[in-house]
Design a protein that fits this description.
Length: about 300
């Protein structure tokens, strides 16, 4: 038996501004041509990885499912590089992969998810196969990629927004999310998203896990020292207020301005990078998945 996350106590009605990042948008797009989620998979999107983990784990059942997981090989704090590889490989397979690639990765993830379920000692009930939890994770992935896309390329018009949204459904259907679970239109997704964000809550247990993540406690101190401040800044910048507040991360107008100017610069540079540079990492990860399948090696 599974239950839905409890709504956070004491929070008023949420708006889109509460649940999406605010960043200065470019004044013009490159083109009004059709868009696709694949265009969001530039390597800059990796900078939002930790923020997206926080978003996903901010639903208590997802958070406890990760913190209490018995799948030691996938523990982010124990095997950070392996977990990073498998997470980004999932995105590469979901966005660029064939149906055969997705089926292989789905089988591998399902094998791990069978072990992710609550015990009598767990503070709440959860199961990794709960479709509502998988939909939440997929929605977080979509929001993260849509925000990143618009930071890099500017806002989409209504038609492009619908195209982008529909092309992103594989972020969920690569696992157990059914197409009919996705809200049918981009506007109806906003209604789902606001309601889902009202159930965000991060307690001390999950919060401690996430703070260790953004402080890079799991890697060698020599690597941690030069990068953990930058990661914390980027992570807080990529989080909407509802998630930042739930984790207790500080933010200020000055930090917001620095974040906006940083991505104006990044977006400018990105325009001149060839596709194989911007998306080469995803293609390498996808090639590794196919190599592992051919050699019958584990994917996760």
């Amino acid at each position: 038996m599974t239950v839905s996350p409890e709504p956070a106590v004491g929070r008023g009605p949420l708006t889109i501004a509460d649940t999406r990042i605010r960043a200065r948008r470019q004044t013009a797009r490159w083109t009004d041509a059709p868009v696709d989620v694949r265009e969001a998979m530039d390597f800059w999107a990796f900078a939002a990885g930790a923020a997206n983990v926080i978003m996903q784990l901010s639903w208590p059942q997802v958070g406890y499912g990760v913190v209490e997981s018995k799948v030691d090989s996938g523990n982010l704090l124990k095997h950070p590089w392996k977990r990073a590889r498998t997470t980004f490989q999932y995105l590469a397979v979901a966005v660029f992969g064939s149906e055969q690639d997705r089926a292989a990765f789905r089988a591998a993830v399902d094998g791990a998810h069978r072990q992710v379920k609550s015990t009598p000692d767990s503070p709440l009930r959860y199961n990794a196969f709960d479709p509502s939890l998988q939909m939440w994770v997929a929605a977080c992935l979509f929001v993260g990629l849509e925000d990143t896309y618009q930071l890099l390329r500017g806002p989409m018009n209504t038609e492009q927004s619908e195209q982008f949204y529909r092309s992103a459904w594989t972020l969920g259907t690569t696992l157990q999310v059914r197409e009919e679970q996705w809200p049918p239109t981009r506007r109806s997704f906003d209604d789902y998203w606001i309601g889902a964000c009202a159930q965000v809550h991060i307690d001390d247990v999950v919060g401690g896990y996430l703070r260790d993540l953004i402080d890079l406690r799991m890697i060698n101190p020599l690597l941690r020292f030069p990068f953990h401040r930058l990661l914390k800044f980027l992570t807080a910048g990529f989080l909407a207020p509802v998630f930042r507040d739930a984790l207790g991360l500080s933010w200020s107008p000055a930090k917001q301005r620095r974040f906006e100017w940083l991505f104006l610069l990044v977006a400018f540079v990105n325009r001149f990078l060839p596709l194989f540079v911007r998306q080469g990492g995803s293609q390498v990860l996808l090639a590794d998945v196919r190599h592992r399948v051919r050699r019958n090696r584990p994917l996760i």
